[in-house]
Amino acid sequence: METSHFGVLCLALLALGGCSDVADVSHPAQLRQKLAFDEMMSQETAETAPMLNRYCMPAEDSADALHAFSGSITIPELAMQTVPAEIEPGTIHGKTTQLFPGVTLEFFSDGDHLVPVVRDLIQPKNSRSFWQIQVEPGKVWSEPGDKGMSRASFPFMLTGDVEGDAYNGIATFLYDNRTISRLRYQVVQQSTPYFIQTWFVAWGHVDARYRRAIVDRQDEIAREFRREISGRVATRDWSELQAAYDPAWLVDFDSSIDPARVTTSGLIIDGTVYAKPSRTPYGDYPYPGEMRHGVWSVTKSMLALVAMLRMAQKYGDEIFELKIKDYLHVTAVHDGWDQVTLGDALNMATGIGAGSRNVDPNNIDDGYITGDEESYNAWYLAPGLKNMLAEVFKRPRYPWGPGVNARYDDRDTFTLSAALDSLLKSREGKDAHLWQMMAEEVYKPIGIHHMSSKFTTEPDGSQGIPFLGWGLFATIDDIAKVSMLLQDGGRHEGRQILSPTKLAEALYQTDKRGLPTGETNEFGKNSYHMALWHTPYTTESGFSTATAEMHGWGGMLVCLMPNRMTGFRIGNGGTRSLEMIRAADRIRPFAPAE
Description:
Layout: H1 9-16, H2 37-41, E1 70-75, E2 78-79, E3 81-83, E4 91-92, E5 95-96, E6 99-100, E7 103-110, E8 113-116, E9 131-135, E10 138-142, E11 150-160, E12 167-175, E13 183-190, E14 201-206, E15 209-212, H3 218-230, E16 234-237, H4 238-244, E17 262-269, E18 272-275, E19 293-294, H5 299-315, H6 342-346, H7 373-380, H8 384-392, H9 410-428, H10 434-443, E20 473-474, H11 476-487, E21 491-492, E22 495-496, H12 500-506, E23 515-521, E24 524-529, E25 532-538, E26 544-552, E27 556-560, E28 566-571, H13 578-587
Helix pairs in contact: 5-9, 5-10, 7-8
């Protein structure tokens, strides 16, 4: 899913009168003006929209928390207040989109941090709500006006039960050793949706129940959390780049995209992230390092490509030539799958699909969803791996066969996921699992501890497989670490994690090139290869090269530069990259490899 045609959230909110506080963005801590003690304890609320995010954070006169927090908070399943007033459609897949999920969350305090025990996506059982939730570490503190109680807040993300979009929020409450106040939450930023038709913000003030208890494995989880924090990639404000280089080089970094469409963007240079603030209609998001982004099809690069490269390192580069039919039961009524390889599926060149036969020139998006919605949605909503594969194999074949023309389709990458999981089980036993392998052998070694993914929902309750085509929820730190691994040739701290030969091919560091997408720019023809979009570029000195890019629905962009920098943009404004590329070239001019 690539180009967004949806409206812009904050512009819509301004039109609806829901952003009265927008002009007052993210000031440093001030004396508390909202969410004071009486308001937090009251059963009444007069709010008609979210408030500035900073009211969920420590005020200017804050101090250390007066109490340790340890136990669980139970949040009831209740209708969210939203702008607009109703989320459309009201139900998806039999679930209600207006309902905040009822969930029990377990936390403990560690210094001034509020640490959640469960860091994965949580799908409440027997819930009527469409939403899953993932919570991240927050803060604890105290303020003089709170009558001896302490305060806490934490960031969270909502996402639909089958979707890849993220809705970022913040929750806050008062607490002591016995009880908590009402819990105030607000949802203030989102990525581009698919089934959800309404761009919205949400809030609520709910009666939550606190059960104080000793947390199992608290010391172990606290140690893991401290290692996680200490291992984060260094992050600097974008203004430091502006001060170090000619500001004119960076002025159009976001390609003249309306700032309302950009959540954040930046450059990763020599192990340091230079990032712009994470914007919302209610001020900068106060937990930028914890903000999870629904990156949609960036998953194809960060997960599908990386999984293939890891398995090539384990089993040999020849896995790219293994045939899908040798690892899956293909039920198609035609022979179009007979010669399709794992590499073809990664390249979106299976020769399977419902688009036109026009390939002069070929349009990579021909046949992708538009005109094929019924078939696509039947697959998208099918319950479990077996049913999803059955829908995949209903698609017709193209006359040209595999490896000839690229036609973009999430179902190719999903089929690759099933084949890779089957391949892994054939080599390492029936209990092996693709996601677990990736977490243990790739992500954890490079310092990624809690990146989450969507999985197939299996009828027997067993662990499904990751979709691979979408479904990752990544922080900027996660994106930085995967990008640095790719830029470092698949090697981390002396250990070769990914196949260096196939990675070099993916980054166009060999003579091998991918298939044309049908798009061009002033420097030449764009191409697609191994789940990366390649944008041609020629420097002022005449050096011709290409950047390897990860693209996601709406406006998710990660751009691997030939000078080992990586640019990124999170938002809803499309994936144009040339201005980002020019900025990186000016900071460190692109040149042929020595």
